[in-house]
User: Fold this.
Amino acid sequence: IKNLHYFWKCKCQCGNITFVDGGHLREGVVCSCGCLALENLLLRLRKKRRGIQTGIEIKMTEILKDLKINFIDQFVIKDISIADFYLPDHNILIYCDGDYWHSNKIMKGNQTRRKRDYKINQKLKKLGYKVLRFWENKINKKTNLCKEKILETIS
Assistant:
């Protein structure tokens, strides 16, 4: 029979069980349940974005440098997210949320992104991170409030 495909039940290194086409196994097309593909995608996105910051990320960089705080930008949290900034000395993740794209209430935007951001925050907190999110309008117009919030969270 031509085009007959056999599938194999495989256990990934991460522990997930998946069914894989035998031809894909023989050819080396598949080497995980998809977890490696996601991890590689996050790394590629991080490398691609490195050096390219939005206006509010540039302002947050200036805030952190002004406060003399050690940080890593575009920090990958495996299988969850890429934080705009990570403060390794304090285990704090900072997200700079655009008013439009992250649906700030003042923009009357889609609530789906806000719900997604909330779920990400919950996962990160369970992993022991402190999470700070700053709206675009606060970063642009009230940098002192942003500085105060960062300092308050650090202490």
Notes: DSSP finds six helices and six strands in the chain. The mean pLDDT is 79.
